[in-house]
Amino acid sequence: MSEPENSDWAKPSSREVGGGGSETVIDADTARHDPQTAVTVAKIKALRQSIDNVDTAIVSLLAERFKYTSQVGVLKARAGFAPADYKREDYQIERLHRIAIDAGLDPDIAEMYREFVVAEAKKRHQRIADAGGDPGVLDVFA
Amino acid sequence: MSEPENSDWAKPSSREVGGGGSETVIDADTARHDPQTAVTVAKIKALRQSIDNVDTAIVSLLAERFKYTSQVGVLKARAGFAPADYKREDYQIERLHRIAIDAGLDPDIAEMYREFVVAEAKKRHQRIADAGGDPGVLDVFA
After folding, report:
1. Cβ(B54)–Cβ(A64) under 8 Å?
2. Which positions fall inside the Chorismate mutase domain (chains A, B) (predicted)?
3. Residues of A in contact with B47 (CB under 8 A)
4. Is residue A56 located within the same domain as residue A87?
5. ipTM greater than cut 0.90
6. For A61, which of B54, B86, B137 is closest by C-beta distance?
7. pLDDT for B81-99, tens place per residue?
8. What is the CATH number of the domain that holds B126?
9. Contact A47 B95 (CB under 8 A)
């Protein structure tokens, strides 16, 4: 990552960090540089608070999602259903593509999200098994 | 994935699929097997609707998150700030760990989520550049 060019503003001092890159810490020191920089720092801080709020919501929703998929896994195992359900998977792929477009999100990212939750379910299952515990039912098609 | 053992219920017929595995499609055909299976199918369908609602919320939130991080990237570039801000990254790692525990989510999954959004931001940037477009500002530290 190179530094952005064509800056029409004075650059605040960036601290050199390992690997030859540099960083700009968005804090009071940076804001003190000049009034225009202070406005930018305030805007970035406000956006970061929104990003943090989004992350809180997503982490909370992921916690609920794993609870639901565990329940589906237990129900399927008790009923003797196979974990796989490719019709469900196809439905989810098509659905996430559609809602991503509606939301203004690159549909490739929505598909990567789906693959992420599937991969995490698999890893979580393996971690519990490796630790000698009962990993329960692995159901990535919930 | 092997089929679960110790099923105390009659198994509905599973369809053989490629790779030697089998699947159970949760649908009206499966529910018709017996009344107890019908109850399980209804429960799974209800849970799947909740999973789909969670996914709709997460995809919508991811769309907003990428909009916010793009704005931070533009602000940093205009101000001549470096993209990197390791203090911010450390803060996010610690924060996501904490809120995951509060939410009942494995903190490793929260960290994987953070790495997922960072990786997707990088890939998205590369895709736009490869397509000959202006990828804008890559800012994975937003």
Report:
1. yes
2. 38-129
3. 68, 71-72, 75, 142
4. no
5. no
6. B54
7. 887 888 999 999 999 999 9
8. 1.20.59.10
9. no
